[in-house]
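subagent[fold] <- orchestrator: predict structure for attached chain, return tokens only, no commentary.
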Amino acid sequence: MFLPTDGCNCDCPASDGLQHIYQPNYHVQFKLKSVAGCDETGVAPLPDGSELTMDGTLTLRETICKADEKRIRFGKNEGSFRIRGPQQDLFEGHFCGTVGVNPSNDKLADRCCYHEHLLGSLCGNGINELVGWSLALSFDMRILALDGPTDPCTAGSRDCTITLDGVLIRPCPVAQPARKPQGKKTGAKK
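subagent[fold] -> orchestrator:
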């Protein structure tokens, strides 16, 4: 859901004319489906059906992508997130990333014209029963029609999908200080 604010778009002077800039806020919720872990922990603290909520701000510059001659909106995606399990919130933190570019592709059209895609990372800490846990997730979110004719500052729903994967790290147990051996007490005789 896009939630535009006053001053959501503007034209700004640039070396090659005017740049059209958008800065809409958004709120999105996803149901998560777990997959097999990449390491040996065997722990799955994010059960199927956990919910990811993201509240963010897009800062977008509209231009024509040189590689495919289509409209694209490049920019930044930033905000906060919360992951809720079946009974309670599990993680909270921040996210940041890019819009419209994909550094893992070598071809100009694939790297510079990654239409409608937002890449980034979510980083946060466990809360409630997961206090002490650390979370880092990479994501690829797609907002359909982000590069289309609809102004991103128009309120309303957009279809979107997300693929994410990452690392959960459990805290080390706190070691208890070693106890000093207790010997027999000896008393002085009077």
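orchestrator: received. Logging for downstream: Residues 2-169 form one domain. The first helix runs from residue 108 to 112.
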